[in-house]
Design a protein that fits this description.
This protein is an alpha+beta fold. The protein has 4 helices and 10 strands, in the order αβββββββααβββα. Helices cover 36% and strands 33% of the residues. The strands form 2 sheets. Strands 3, 4, 5, 6, 7, 8, 9 and 10 form an 8-stranded antiparallel β-sheet that branches. A two-stranded antiparallel sheet has the order 1-2.
Length: 180
């Protein structure tokens, strides 16, 4: 009985050590990516006003409510529509109360989804194996930026969202449950 208990104790200690090293490595990788995290997208900084982004053109006004005075969508007509070799359909910049709150990148096709997935993983951290197998929806969350990659295999359309964590609630308080 003592031998069994001793063997169990040694196995338990080894498991705790291995788990501790794995958690420490994951934590170190997360910290490394946090330090490199961008505070915006493509040179546009979260919280910037439309006036600070002269290359953008307003394409849609989304309205106002008691929560926010206005929400608007802008685009850059001269912006290249490729990212890491992926062909993009559109890039839209959403401002809520004159602050850049999110960027919507639209694309079509599974190949473009895979290119965008690789690009995001290089910058924000690799997904776990089981997460990589999820085709329709994956997310990354940093200190200042959240990222959501969606893909509908039926329509072959997808969206890569970048959003400011401190400002994102303004839009969802504004239009609960909606996207641009």
């Amino acid at each position: 009985m003592n031998q069994a208990r001793k063997g169990f104790s040694i196995a338990l200690v080894l498991c705790v050590l291995v788990l501790g090293l794995t958690v420490r490595q994951a934590w170190a990788a997360a910290i490394e990516h946090e330090e490199d995290e961008e505070a915006g997208f493509s040179g546009y900084t979260w919280g910037a006003a439309p006036a600070d982004c002269p290359s953008l053109t307003r394409i849609r006004e989304l309205g106002s409510t008691d929560y926010a005075h206005k929400a608007e969508v802008y685009t850059n007509p001269d912006e290249g529509l490729t990212l890491n070799g992926a062909s993009l359909s559109a890039i839209n910049y959403r401002f809520v109360d004159d602050q850049l709150e999110s960027v919507e990148v639209k694309y079509e096709g599974r190949e473009n989804r895979e290119s965008l997935l690789r690009w995001v993983e290089e910058r924000y951290g690799r997904l776990a194996g089981y997460e990589r197998r999820i085709v329709t929806h994956v997310e990354w969350v940093g200190e200042r930026t959240g990222i959501t990659l969606t893909y509908d295999p039926r329509t072959k359309h997808g969206t890569l969202w970048f959003f400011s964590l401190p400002l994102h609630h303004l839009y969802y308080d504004f239009f609960p449950g909606s996207r641009v």
